[in-house]
Design brief:
The protein has about 200 residues and is mostly helical. It contains 8 helices and 4 strands. The model has no long low-confidence stretch (mean pLDDT about 85).
């Protein structure tokens, strides 16, 4: 063993094995410190730099693209009884409506629309709705002095229509928990009454 090697022995021995001091090279330390400093730069850029594309922005852009793709074939939906009843009888659109409901409405109305902070949507009573088309108006514009928030600026106009059709399908279904509020109104029009083909 050379003198220089002997100087690197740490003086610790375990089962005949001596501990040897082999420090990491200087360039490794430079890289390590650079990554630490870079993490601070990255953090502050993610908060304030206009050049930084945040994950929430990417998500919003992806959601917008998905919505535009999904609605590309149907154009702009209108808030009328024929459109709503047609959607109510379309399983694919009601599956989408259920997803929109769970993502935006379940925190107040319950995951199954059974009622919570918001009203129970499974009974026959309504507070701000007297006709089928009123549902979309309430979703879009809000109600009860802001207790029901306006979703018109957060949801695509077509999503408001599909969501209102989904909410309409919940009427009279079992599972409501919160006590009924408002007044009982006339039944929704049916597809046959509106001259629509069976099944939407």
């Amino acid at each position: 063993m050379s003198t220089s090697d002997a100087n690197l022995i740490q003086g610790h021995e375990y089962d005949g094995i001596q501990e040897y001091d082999n420090p990491t090279p200087g360039w490794w330390h430079i890289i390590w410190l650079t990554t630490i400093l870079g993490s601070f730069v990255y953090f502050f850029m993610s908060l304030w730099s206009p050049m930084f594309i945040h994950q929430t922005d990417r998500l919003a852009a992806a959601q917008t693209a998905e919505i535009e793709l999904r609605f590309a074939d149907i154009g702009e939906l209108t808030n009328d009884e024929a459109t709503l009843v047609g959607l109510m009888n379309d399983p694919d659109w009601m599956t989408y409506g259920a997803a929109v409901f769970k993502g935006n409405c379940s925190s107040c109305h319950g995951s199954n629309a059974e009622g919570g902070v918001g009203t129970n949507m499974r009974d026959e009573h309504f507070k701000n709705v007297s006709s089928l088309t009123d549902i979309a108006d309430v979703i879009r514009d809000g109600a009860n002095a802001g207790a029901m928030p306006a979703w018109g600026r957060r949801l695509h106009p077509n999503e408001v229509i599909v969501l209102s059709a989904y909410v309409a399908t919940l009427r009279g279904t079992p599972g409501g928990v919160k006590q009924a509020e408002g007044v009982e109104i006339a039944p929704w029009p049916t597809a046959s009454e509106l001259g629509l083909a069976s099944g939407g």
